[in-house]
């Protein structure tokens, strides 16, 4: 009998040992679909602890297909599921930051709840997903950017995906993407769609030994630093930001979230290309704000305003747009 089958419905927090055993059972196929579904629903209804999040991430990390990354590589990734259906901010940020010389191992997937995930939009821009996956390590080394398509690196999730679909609601696995980057990056800007959960998630990152991270959430439940108002921030490790960040802190105006509503992959791809070609407006400002935080995280900027200048230079010089073209050609 598996450890998972012996556990009661998780109404009380699990010990580190029990959580580790339970997620090993789940990912190694030693538990029934019914037991997995009941367990995951129970965790969600009670609220996952930092220990449970960390142990789920450890189990997934132990079973992923890794790549090597250069020193200083970062990831910029949100958990998704915020319901705002915005344009692809973290994808654009990845290009802007990488074009300025900070290696970015972008971990992502196709859309689950939005109309266009990172993979969908990059594919619409002309990036061959299969080729980009096969050349991820090489493109990260040579271009300073890669896309780590989750399905290519997490074979253990194949059995879990249909169970998650059947459950039809958020589970702990919705939090796993940023915690299981196949490049094992030490620095991460992570957006989650639950402001009240930011400290719990940050504590999980600390338990996992993360070198430095900013865990952020817009007050309206946006899984990135919001351009519409204040965002809560918890810092892990060496890099620092204030506990609350607003666009004004970076010298940027506020825009309503509706101003960056996205559409299908073609729509989002066109918006991203126009952004890289210098279009002003709310999308640019959202990207500048989040890229500024990424530069602080990477140690390239001391404060947000300095990071905004670096991000604007990456766009306005044409470097970010050129990087996208070279990435497409490389794949």
Automatic annotation (TrEMBL):
Entry's EC annotation: 2.4.2.18
Binding residues for anthranilate 1: 78, 109
Residue span, Glycosyl transferase family 3 N-terminal domain: 13-63
Pathway assigned in UniProt: Amino-acid biosynthesis; L-tryptophan biosynthesis; L-tryptophan from chorismate: step 2/5
Amino-acid positions noted as binding Mg(2+) 2 in the UniProt annotation, renumbered to this chain: 223-224
Membership in a protein family: In the C-terminal section; belongs to the anthranilate phosphoribosyltransferase family.
Physiological role: Catalyzes the transfer of the phosphoribosyl group of 5-phosphorylribose-1-pyrophosphate (PRPP) to anthranilate to yield N-(5'-phosphoribosyl)-anthranilate (PRA).
Domain Glycosyl transferase family residue range list: 73-320
UniProt keyword annotations, A-Z: Amino-acid biosynthesis, Aromatic amino acid biosynthesis, Glycosyltransferase, Magnesium, Metal-binding, Transferase, Tryptophan biosynthesis
Binding site for Mg(2+) 1: 90, 224
Protein name (Swiss-Prot/TrEMBL): Anthranilate phosphoribosyltransferase
Subunit: Homodimer.
Keyword Magnesium: yes
Organism: Sphingomonas metalli
Any one GO MF annotation of this record: anthranilate phosphoribosyltransferase activity
Binding site residues for 5-phospho-alpha-D-ribose 1-diphosphate: 78, 81-82, 86, 88-91, 106-114, 118
Cited HAMAP family: TrpD
CC cofactor: Mg(2+)
Superkingdom assignment: Bacteria
Cofactor descriptive note: Binds 2 magnesium ions per monomer.
One GO term describing the cellular component: cytosol
EC class (word): transferase
UniProt GO BP: L-tryptophan biosynthetic process
One Pfam family from the record: Glycos_trans_3N
Keyword Transferase found: yes
Reactions catalysed, as given in the entry: N-(5-phospho-beta-D-ribosyl)anthranilate + diphosphate = 5-phospho-alpha-D-ribose 1-diphosphate + anthranilate
Residues that coordinate or bind anthranilate 2: 164
